[in-house]
Amino acid sequence: MKILGIFASPRRGGNTELLLDEWLKGAEQEGASVERLYLSDFTITPCKECHGCDNTGSCVILDEMGKIYPKLLEANIVVLASPIFFYGVTAWAKALIDRSQAFWARKYLLKDPSLGREGKKRKGFFISVGATKGKKVFEGSILTIKYFFDVLNAEYVGDLLVKGVESKGDILKHPEVLQQAFDAGRKLVQNP
Question: Model pTM greater than 0.70?
Answer without folding.
Answer: yes
